[in-house]
Write a structure and sequence with these properties.
The complex is a heterodimer of chains A (about 60) and B (about 475). By secondary structure, chain A is α+β, with helices and mostly antiparallel strands. In chain A, about 15% of the residues lie in helices and about 30% in strands. Chain A has one helix and five strands; from the N terminus they run ββαβββ. A four-stranded mixed β-sheet of chain A has the order 2-1-5-3, covered by helices on one side. Chain A is globular. Chain B has about 475 residues and is an alpha/beta fold. Chain B has 14 helices and 24 strands. In chain B, the strands form six sheets. Chain B has a six-stranded mixed β-sheet with strand order 7-8-10-11-14-13. Chain B has a five-stranded mixed β-sheet with strand order 3-2-1-15-16, with no helix packed on it. A five-stranded mixed β-sheet of chain B has the order 19-17-22-18-23. The chains are: A alpha+beta (about 60), B alpha/beta (about 475). The interface between A and B is medium-sized, with 32 and 36 residues. Strand 4 of chain A pairs antiparallel with strand 12 (about 225-230) of chain B, so a sheet runs across the interface.
């Protein structure tokens, strides 16, 4: 499924958690999987946990 | 003139007498929590906050929006799965819980036992069960507080396959319908109640859509997406809440009713639990659950399961993943094998639970033989070591630049890998997300974790020995 991390489309598997989408974003941007994630929010500005569920077209905004 | 004053006085007196018979403005307090995922260690702090709230608001309602279990082996691997959580929820007096998708992780029979053990009802309108399960679940509840009737409907999310996000092997006996199809059947509750709430395990984005579609709800108390919904979030007139996950927050919602029982104000406030003092009685219960000898027991009596060998343990993990998901092949990444934490000794349940601290899910792909070859090469370079495998074995060379070359894969049936044929392959979510390998199939979660399948595998194969296992050979 397609999700958006910092407005960049990222392909991930169906049923992925927030963390898997961010890992895929790191992969696409040649960032280490160990990159520190300081904060994750949804499109509404709510804080979300790394193990939260996402759905197709979810928007995630991260601070690293 | 005097007569006019008398009438005026009489009128005011009657008005005062009449108004004093009417109930005054009333406030309803609802505490909600979601996705506790068996984090029993935070329950003593939760109990402290609930004690404080109930001291001021004795009529407080307390709801869980599901996923009470899955995330702590002390609860999930208890001989009676889920017992610690449900006993703690009883002790802090939950009024109701809905089901989350993880409630099915130990199967429908274990779920039935949890429901029976609970002193509070489980509510879910879009699930039904076979009679043989004897599951006591209600589609909705009506609570009475201060003369007000409060209707509460529960719903659970469904994935693309028409069941919630759990492994299909746990589905038999449970039947699901989409929430948007079921909710209209219960909207007449609005006419019978002073307030109508939806407790949803769909995730925040879906809750926003539900609020736009069903403004009849006064509030949606949500879960599933592990969102800390900002205080006082109101969408289309519907208050929406969610309290992150793992008992880190509790949300308190306040509803103000006028004299006629109409809601005139609603607000929500997230209460962090980290800084709270633990409540002694609940802490004693948690300590008792944590000192569980079951976790020191050797899993399946495997006295010689692994030698001091990364490959032995890696292949064991891959075998467990393949058997636990029904795939044709399974791969375990080199860096994800923490054999140094295990050493050469019998494996306890506690050891197994520490093998995958990230609790990675297993992801299934339909891959061609060529895609598998490319995947192995990419994994080798990215993870600084070869994947361990089940359902096959392989050999390779390494060139001067550290790239895998000349990879020859043999299947368990003795045949070579066919580059054009399709295979069902399983790997953990770290590999599927971090390794940049070409694959047509985007993949799908199996909704099983590597820990979960390993515990099952060891229990099912008590006499296995991986001491001389060599499936991956660098020439």
């Amino acid at each position: 499924m397609l999700v958006f991390v910092n407005d960049i489309p990222v392909k991930t598997y169906y049923g992925a958690k927030v963390k898997s989408a961010i890992m895929a974003y790191f992969r696409d941007h040649d960032l280490s999987p160990k990159t520190e994630i300081k904060e994750v929010r949804d499109a509404y500005g709510n804080l979300i946990a790394l193990d939260g569920s996402i759905r197709s077209n979810s928007k995630i905004y991260i601070k690293i | 003139m005097r007569k006019t004053y008398s009438f005026l006085f009489l009128g005011l007196a009657l008005l005062f007498a009449f108004s004093s018979c009417q109930p005054k403005e009333r406030k309803l307090y609802v505490a909600t929590i979601n996705d506790m995922h068996a984090n029993i260690d935070n329950f003593p702090k939760l109990a402290t906050v609930l004690d404080s709230l109930r001291a001021v608001h004795p009529d407080l309602l307390l709801f869980s929006a599901g996923d009470n279990r899955s995330g702590n082996p002390i609860n999930d691997r208890n001989p009676e799965p889920g017992r610690p959580m449900v006993e703690l929820m009883n002790a802090v007096h939950f009024d109701m819980s809905i089901f989350g998708n993880h409630e099915w992780d130990a199967g429908a029979c274990a779920l039935r036992d949890v429901v029976k053990r609970a002193d509070f009802p489980f509510v879910c309108a879009n699930v039904s069960f076979d009679d043989t399960l004897n599951m006591d679940v209600k589609p909705y509840m009506v609570f009475e507080r201060q003369g007000l009737k409060i209707g509460v409907l529960g719903v659970i999310q469904l994935g693309l396959t028409g069941i919630p996000d759990f492994h299909p092997k746990n589905a038999p006996g449970s039947h699901f319908r989409p929430a948007v199809e079921v909710i209209p059947e219960y909207l007449s509750l609005k006419d019978q109640c002073d307030a109508l709430f939806l407790v949803s395990h769909y995730g925040f984005e879906d809750d926003v859509e539900l609020a736009n579609q069903f403004p009849q709800f006064d509030a949606i108390f949500g879960g599933h997406s592990h969102t800390l919904v900002n205080d006082n979030t109101i969408v289309n007139g519907v208050l929406i809440t969610q309290a992150l996950n793992r008992v880190k927050y509790l949300t308190l919602s306040t509803f103000t009713f006028d004299r006629k029982g109409r809601i005139i104000a609603k607000e929500s406030h997230n209460i962090p639990l980290a800084a709270e003092q633990p409540q002694a009685k609940i802490k004693a219960m948690v300590d008792d659950f944590n000192h569980n000898e079951v976790f020191m027991k050797v899993v399946g009596d495997n006295a010689a399961v692994v030698e001091d060998c990364r490959q032995c343990l890696g292949c064991l993990m891959a075998d467990a993943a393949m058997e636990g998901t029904g795939a044709q092949m399974a791969f375990q990444n080199y860096g994800g094998v923490r054999f140094d934490t295990l050493g050469v000794r019998p494996i306890t349940l506690k050891d197994v639970c520490s093998l995958d601290p990230f609790d990675n899910e297993l992801v299934r792909f339909d891959m061609t033989g060529q895609e598998i070859l490319d995947f192995l090469a990419v994994s080798f370079f990215t993870d600084h070591g070869p994947n361990f495998c089940a359902g096959c074995s392989y050999s390779f060379t390494v060139d001067e630049e550290g790239q895998m070359k000349d990879c020859q894969v043999m299947l368990s049936n003795g045949k070579p890998l066919n580059l054009k044929e399709h295979y069902q392959v399983v790997m953990n979510s770290y590999m599927s997300s971090s390794f940049d390998f070409p694959h047509e199939d985007p993949g799908a979660s199996t909704f099983r974790t590597s820990n979960e399948v390993l515990v099952e595998y060891l229990a099912a194969h008590p006499q296995i020995n991986y001491a001389n296992t060599m499936r991956v050979i660098e020439k």
